[in-house]
Design goal:
The complex is a heterotrimer of chains A (about 475), B (about 100) and C (about 375). Chain A has about 475 residues and is α/β, with parallel strands linked by helices. Chain A has 16 helices and 24 strands. Chain B has one domain: Ubiquitin-like (UB roll), CATH 3.10.20.740. The N and C termini of chain B lie far apart (about 35 Å). Classes of the chains: A alpha/beta (about 475), B mainly beta (about 100), C alpha+beta (about 375). Strand 10 of chain A pairs antiparallel with strand 1 of chain B.
Chain lengths: ~475, ~100, ~375
């Protein structure tokens, strides 16, 4: 019997563990990744020739990072590995990829496991379109992957554990961090402690990070309200102004801002595969529906990791393995009976922690309503909150795709990755309707920009 | 800002190389992304099409698509995922309006 | 079609209820290429197209919204002498129908249209055609109709329709019933279900256009650009908007599912389209495609719309199935249908589109591929 074709998209924690599990069962999956190196984002590998140690790069996560990278090295000769290959669309049982510049291929599959990960989740603030404003993840990638700080004097703003992690990494690497500005209030974090305590190690790490920051003299403020990022069009960021927890205005002169509010699932391939989505009211975002093992609503399509369910890196590793076991099970190779229940229990624990994180560091959706009309919401198209509100009020565009059609929000190069959530909040508030009723931007191919020079693939579908 | 937007903190002992940006030579190190190389000298990557100024990238992970740069020969490079090579010639200026015309 | 008809009926003082299953302009009206084109049309359709073109020029005054209409001209290129003869013939005939086209070749062709690829040997130019934003046009008519006093009811699916005495009765999914002595069916790719309910089935097949758009680049291509060819996949077209994006379409269509209200661009169709676009204007090959989309267009077997009064029932009218070439006609269709419904006749000839032409053989056969696929864009 011919071996089933399984394609894994992504070589972050979920993708690597998925591929590893499939290989262990005797399969030779195709592993597709857009990047040059494996590792994903949180365990992003530095370029060849860079010399920093794992401890320096990944701190407390050094062992996990090294394990993951070694695991991939071990299975690399046993998989059909396609780096620098962009999965730009998916149709029934075919993954459409771009590789080597302008070459395309249609890869057939019996099962597809999408481990596409996440990006930062952004809430716009006036001036965030100035040069020098980056996502939190970008600030971390600049350090990890290029040994750079994003500026001479950096302010970190947003919420979530990543805020403190990256800021402390910057401090330890010798960068100048002026302030860490958290929109969440200390009281929210205290209330979330019971849920967070399900992963005590992580809680302790969080406390340790705070200590590093305070020792370095970094101003740490909670309960802040971002007001504006100031600067000049020609030269970029010059400062950040916020209201502190007591309502006083505070200004920080800086040349770079790292901004982020947790994560946002990269779910475009799931959308193109016609997977059903559902609204998660706690985190106020739409996520693809999966069963507890990672099966989507489309037979043969599995979703694992932060691209489906934002459980973080450890959760992604477990989800990747579990999805692989689900694939094997569905292909007639059921795993030994204890494997899946154990992974499910791990994921349940991760999920309790995830919900605690949402309580501790909530998505500050009310900031969308408070955005001044002049604040840019869609960075790609430079569309302001005022223009979006006008479309709702004057043109009746209260459904997200309609609002997009009328305002151009979400029509730019990033296709709504960084403006979509906040835009929906602006629309919901302007229309006076619940956020869920606004809906979500409809996914359309290509997943990322496709060159007009892309060539048709010459033969029949490559396998 | 006239360059030096990103600050090198480590890994500075790498082979140097040179590329051209807006017709001027700029220095980079082997392993730099085009983004890091440009931000180290020019300070920005492109101009926003819609009048709100220069852009210098945003997500650094190939998601935001804000860092696309033109080469002098008319190719597109995503600066955060492109590794620099010796002799690369890029421009941070937009195409001319005559861009579609065949020579 | 519905939104424009509602607007013009109000202008004539008629009371109007516009029932829309989803949102005004959400289907074919909102996803098409946006060509405001008379060149290339079936010649007897030109009077309607001229009337519509006149209204396009007045959108701002009429609706307060010009839907980004630009008079940029429209040029169709050809790849061989045989097709050059075809467009020459068309230009000669079109003059008689009131459309003046310029045949441009040689060095003047290269000078005026320097973006064309080497394989494009000459072209036919229509100076007063142009393009507009399809996402804005129908909704603008809908809002203007409402301001003029039409009852515009969105998110209202009509489940059943019949004639009850003197009145037509529309039963909506939410339980409401609407009655009126006249009814106009402009339900696009779903129009055939409603016409069939009145004993007038028609051979309509849904198709999904293959649409796409590039990143914004400096505004350097003014006219709408298309191709005249007998080969379906060669017939691609594009237009650059002032913001700089290039919208493109054409080539082979994709699958459309009216029941699901979804249609898809097939990756292989997109890649072939890109190849043909590079052939048509090579420098397009520098750009990036940001997004593709499709929609549900209704195609009639003979590639002409259904428009005019019912052949069987008085007070019933139709305007649907515009075969992917209805965008330019929208304002004109609205104006003509309003005139027809209001006065019983219209000065614009629309007999070729009468639903009665299908009375003899209405079977919904597969659409026969049009042998002479001169540009339908």
């Amino acid at each position: 019997m011919a071996q089933p074709h399984v394609i894994v998209v992504g070589t972050g924690p979920a993708g690597v563990r998925c591929a590893e599990t499939l290989v262990a069962a005797g399969l030779t999956p195709t592993v597709v990744d857009e990047g040059r190196r494996d590792g994903g984002q949180i365990y992003r590998r530095q370029p060849e020739g860079f010399k920093r140690s794992y401890a320096k790069l990944y701190g407390s996560e050094a062992k996990k990072a090294e394990d993951l990278h070694c695991s991939f090295e071990a299975i690399r000769p046993k998989v059909d590995y396609r780096p620098e290959t962009l999965a730009w669309n998916v149709t029934a049982n075919k993954l459409h990829v771009l590789h080597d510049g302008n070459h395309t291929a249609a890869l057939s599959f019996d099962a597809l496991v999408v481990c596409s990960g996440a990006t930062d989740r952004l809430m716009p603030v006036e001036g965030w379109n100035l040069a020098g404003c980056y996502s939190l993840g970008a600030a971390q990638i600049a350090l990890k992957s290029q040994a750079c700080a994003i500026g001479r004097r950096v302010v970190f703003m947003g919420t979530g554990p990543l805020l403190y992690l990256v800021a402390s990494q910057y401090v330890q690497a010798g960068a100048t961090v002026l302030a860490v500005l958290d929109t969440s209030r200390f009281s929210q974090r205290v209330r979330a402690l019971p849920a967070l305590a399900v992963r005590p190690g992580l809680l302790l790490k969080g406390i340790a990070l705070n200590r590093i920051l305070r020792k370095a003299g970094v101003a740490v403020h909670s309960g802040i309200t971002p007001l504006r990022i100031t600067g000049a069009a020609a030269t970029g960021v010059q400062g950040v102004t916020v209201l502190d927890g007591n309502g006083s205005e505070r200004n920080f002169d800086c040349d770079a801002v790292a901004l982020g509010y947790h994560l946002r699932a990269e779910s475009q391939l799931a959308d193109l595969a016609r997977c059903e989505f559902q609204f998660d009211s706690e985190s106020r975002q739409w996520l693809p529906k999966i069963d507890r093992d990672g099966r989507s609503t489309i037979s043969g399509v599995y979703l694992a990791g932060d691209g489906a369910h934002l459980l973080g890196a450890d959760g992604a590793e477990a989800a990747g393995s579990l999805a692989a076991l689900a694939v094997l099970s569905d292909l007639g190779q059921p795993p030994s009976p204890d494997q899946m229940p154990r992974l499910r229990r791990t994921l349940d624990k991760m999920d309790r922690f995830r919900r605690g994180l949402i309580k501790a560091f909530p998505w500050p959706h009310a900031q969308a309503a408070a955005l001044p009309d002049s604040a840019v919401v869609c960075r790609c198209e430079t569309i302001t909150a005022g223009e979006l509100r006008r479309v709702v009020n004057d043109m009746g565009g209260s459904e997200m795709n309609r609002a997009k059609a009328f305002s151009r929000v979400g029509m730019g190069r990033c296709q709504g990755r960084f403006c979509g959530h906040a835009a929906a909040e602006v629309v919901a508030h302007a229309a006076g309707i619940p956020i869920e009723m606004v809906g979500r931007l409809r996914g359309q191919g290509p997943v990322k920009p496709l060159p007009m020079a892309a060539l048709e693939n010459p033969g029949a579908a490559n396998v | 800002m006239t360059g030096g937007r990103f600050i090198r903190l480590a890994e500075t002992v790498r082979a140097p190389l040179q590329l051209m940006a807006d017709g001027k030579p700029i220095a980079a190190l082997e392993g730099d992304t085009l983004l890091v190389a440009l931000l180290g000298s020019v300070g920005h990557l492109r101009h926003s099409e819609f009048g709100d100024g220069v852009r210098s990238g945003f997500c650094l992970m190939g998601a935001c698509q804000d860092c696309w740069v033109w080469t002098e020969s008319g190719e597109r490079l995503r600066a955060c995922t492109t590794v620099v090579r010796e002799g690369l010639r890029v421009t941070t200026e937009p195409l001319e309006a005559t861009w579609p015309n065949r020579t | 079609m519905g939104a424009a008809s509602a607007f013009f009926l109000r202008k004539r003082g008629r009371s109007v209820i516009l029932l829309e299953r989803g949102l005004v302009g959400q289907q074919a009206s909102g996803v098409n290429f946006g060509n405001v084109r008379r060149q290339g049309r079936y010649l007897p359709q030109l009077p309607l197209a001229h009337r519509s073109r006149a209204i396009w020029g007045q959108m701002k005054e009429l609706l307060g919204d010009d839907a980004e209409f630009l008079v940029t001209g429209h040029v169709r290129g050809v790849y061989d002498e045989a097709q050059a003869a075809v467009v020459e013939e068309y230009a000669k005939d079109a003059r008689g129908w009131g459309l003046d086209l310029e045949l441009v070749g040689g060095s003047e062709f290269r000078r005026r249209f320097p973006f064309f690829g080497a394989g494009v040997i000459c072209g036919s130019y229509s100076p007063n055609d142009g393009h507009a934003n399809p996402r804005l046009a129908a909704p603008a008519f809908g809002r203007a109709a409402a301001r003029a006093g039409a009852r515009v009811i969105e998110n209202c699916e009509v489940l059943a329709i019949d004639k009850d005495g003197e009145d037509f009765r529309m039963q909506a999914a939410d339980g409401r019933t609407f009655r009126a002595p006249s009814a106009l069916i402009c339900a696009g790719a779903w129009g055939d279900k409603l016409s069939a309910a009145f004993g007038e089935p028609v051979p309509l097949t849904p198709h999904g256009p293959s649409m796409g758009v590039t990143e914004p680049v400096p505004y350097g291509i003014i006219p709408v650009v298309g191709v005249s060819s007998k080969v379906a996949h060669e017939v691609v077209y594009f237009r650059q908007v002032k913001r700089g994006n290039i919208v493109f379409g054409g080539g082979l269509r994709g699958p459309a599912y009216p029941d699901l209200k979804r249609a898809y661009v097939l990756p292989e169709n997109l890649l072939r389209q890109l190849r043909e676009l590079r052939r048509l204007a090579p420098e397009l090959g520098k750009l990036q495609v940001l997004r593709t989309w499709s929609g549900i267009e209704g195609y009639m077997r003979d590639e002409l719309p259904v428009m005019g009064p019912s052949g069987r029932i008085s007070g019933l009218y139709y305007a649907f199935g515009f075969c992917g070439h209805g965008f330019q006609l929208g304002p004109g269709v609205g104006d003509v249908m309003a005139e027809l419904i209001d006065t019983g006749a219209t000065t614009t000839p629309i007999e070729p589109f009468h639903i009665q032409r299908f009375a003899a053989s209405p079977a919904t056969a597969q659409t026969t591929p049009r042998a002479a696929a001169s540009a339908t864009a």
